[in-house]
Amino acid sequence: MRDIIVIILQIAGLLLIVVAGVGLIRLPDFYCRSHALGKAMALGIVLLLTALWVHLGFDAAGMILPLAFLFQLITIPVASHLLCQLARRKNIPTFDPAKQKNTKKET
């Protein structure tokens, strides 16, 4: 039963990290990309750490892994927020669909 829980947590964490990578590639501007990375990576890493905690056992891992969860959940979103603030101060433009040219060729 423990192995099934570990596999489910690992797959869920992996999928969230893949979603963050896809968001990094597919989203149009810095702010959207930062949002995708900040949310999905934090949750993906926490799920992988949870899988490790379940696999090692609660006694073996002790309080080290819960502190790592807390550290990840605090630092990743804060770093993403600070990068977006810096981008805003540097006047990095946001995505505006009205300004985008229609690149499809009409036949």
What do these coordinates show?
- This protein is mainly α.
- It has one domain (2-89).
- 77% of the residues lie in helices and 0% in strands.
- It has 4 helices and no strands.
- It has helices at residues 2-26, 30-56, 58-61, 64-89.
- α1 runs antiparallel to α2 and α2 (30-56) packs antiparallel against α4 (64-89).
- The model has no long low-confidence stretch (mean pLDDT 87).
The SSE order reads HHHH
Q: What best-fitting shape do the alpha-carbon axes yield?
A: elongated
Terminal Cα span: 58 Å
* Number of helices in the DSSP assignment: 4
Q: What portion of residues belong to β-strands?
A: under 5%
User: Low-confidence spans: pLDDT under 50, at least 5 residues?
Assistant: none
> What is the total domain count?
1
Mean pLDDT over all positions = 87
**Biggest β-sheet strands, sense, barrel:** none
Rg from alpha-carbon coordinates: 19 Å
Name the helicity range: over 70%
Oligomeric form of this entry? single chain
Total beta-strand segments: 0
From the helix content, strand content and strand pairing, which structural class follows?
Answer: mainly alpha
Give a summary of the structure in a few sentences.
The chain is mainly alpha-helical and 107 residues long. The chain has four helices and no strands.
Give the helix/strand layout:
Elements: H1 2-26, H2 30-56, H3 58-61, H4 64-89
Helix pairs in contact: 1-2, 2-4
Provide tags for this entry:
single chain; 107 residues; mainly alpha; elongated
